[in-house]
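Researcher: Please predict.
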Amino acid sequence: MDNLVATITELLTATGEAHHQAFISSGGEDPEWARWYATKLEPELSGKLTAPLSREDIACLLPLLEKERVLKEPQTGWAQYYARAIVERFSIIHRD
């Protein structure tokens, strides 16, 4: 589980950096940020999770995870929190 969380944290961080670069001219303002992230993340997450997530799923999930993070763990970095939550919700970990 830890490896998958780390992998998804890296994907989220890279996507965040790419988004920042893409929207630097607008001061980072992007009301459709979740859709932008979803477009980038969907192919990267494909095959990594037990339950497949569509672009629409991801675009709806990310703003909810941010609201949850702010309420429950505001001190935790967003990428780490989102990755852990995604793995906990959408991946079955097999233990021998």
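Model: Helices lie at 2-22, 33-45, 55-72, 78-90.
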